[in-house]
């Protein structure tokens, strides 16, 4: 299933609302066209699903718990991918006009690392 179709299924199933659907479509285009990240079902389903659920949590006033410090330190250890993920997350915040809490940033960075550094998986 293509990611665009996945977004539609999530919207039609009531998992995400239309605004979140539209944000995901916008971010997918931004990842591919601006950041030159090859997002597809194989590598991007986790990232895009995480973004969808994160945005819906924000609408409910919820935030996920922080990840284990040791896991986060491992992610930070890959300096190049970590720095790029920071820039991408800053870009997401700017585009969507949101502020992503640290705990959510950590998991978002982990998901971005699967694309930025596929050998890390």
TrEMBL record:
InterPro entries per record: PRD, PRD_sf
GO terms classed as biological process: regulation of DNA-templated transcription
Superkingdom of the organism of origin: Bacteria
Residues of the PRD domain: 15-121
Pfam families per UniProt: PRD
SUPFAM superfamilies per record: PTS-regulatory domain, PRD (SSF63520)
Protein name: PRD domain-containing protein
Organism: Entomospira entomophila
Organism lineage string: Bacteria, Pseudomonadati, Spirochaetota, Spirochaetia, Spirochaetales
